Amino acid sequence: MDVSWYAWFAVIAVIAIALAADLLLFHRHAHEVSVREAAVTSAGWILAGLGFGVIVWLAWGHAPAAEYFSGYLIEKSLSVDNIFIMASLLGYFAVASRDRHRVLFWGVVGALLLRGLLIGTAVPLLKTFHWAIYALGAGLILSGIRMATHHQVDMHPDENPVLRRLGRVVPCTPHHDGQKLFTRREGRVMATPLFAALVAVEATDIVFATDSIPAIFSVTDEPFLIFTSNAFAILGMRALYFCLAGSVERFRYLRQGLAIILTFVGTKMVLSMIVHVPTVGSLGVIGAVLTISIGASIYADRREQSRHSARTDFAVHAQARPESRL
Question: Which residues, other chains included, contact 276 with Cβ-Cβ below 8 Å and sequence gap of 6+?
């Protein structure tokens, strides 16, 4: 796949313009993002990601497009699990609802820079030391097993070594100051809890990147496709957060689905010298697992709600029955 420098320039320019417009036009003033606004924005980012896949198809053919869509779907699905962790972190630091978009915005910017650095480092290393692909595959299998056996993730930001060192390097105040990351107190420049929340979000993303980047290497080794699939999936993560952050319990089987995906792509990487799974086949497996896990979660949630309603109706009738006899 031959990607010219102006294709890279065009993609990075579009991403920069989109981020600037999002911050300066749509979220210039702090406000609480409604579910409707988040849903519309999320749909727009999804359409942008799918539209770029169509551009890849037209420019380079169906094989690179299938690799892009597979990488996009992997990163998008794993970012959902990341969203639930971010919700816990923002709650821990008592970030107001109207200020959360600002934290997530800079979190996305940091995530894009981090992914670019990781991809730029990992691609040359894997081409030089091809055996490392098997180590990455084994790591993904272990991550899948760990995700399947640990149903809940306990967040302890006070035990995070990054945050502990932050307090030693930068003086911090326990008081918020609107959307400011730094404020002046008693003549000193101090970091606010908003900045600590941003650092925690970035530290968490580093952990998730160690899963998502190797997972995408299971479907493509083209840096352009790896970066763009990551970028378009991450750009929609803020809007997706405001859609899903309050409904963690409804997706009870999603972590099991993500565990299966990680185990699948890890196994594919480990057995790449023996068994070749076509990219379209990988895309089908990933899509099917996500569909089944989300569908099963919604079905279980509705069934539980109907049972709860039935119990409530029974209790109401049971209480009313003695009165009707009188």
Answer: none
Helix or strand run (H / E) with residue 183: strand 182-185
Written as six digits, the tokens of 295 are: 């569908």
Rounded distance between C-alpha atoms, residue 115 and residue 94, angstroms: 28
| CA separation for the pair 113, 217 (Å, rounded) | 18
Least confident among 56-70, 91-105, 141-155: 141-155
**192-204 per-residue burial string, b: 16 or more CB within 10 A, e: under 16:** bbbbbbbbbbbbb
Q: Are 255 and 151 in contact (CB under 8 A)?
A: yes
Helix (H, G, I), strand (E, B) or coil at 247: coil
The pTM of this model reads 0.79
Q: What is the DSSP letter of 172?
A: B
Tens digits of per-residue pLDDT, 161-196? Answer: 666 667 677 778 778 887 888 888 877 888 888 888
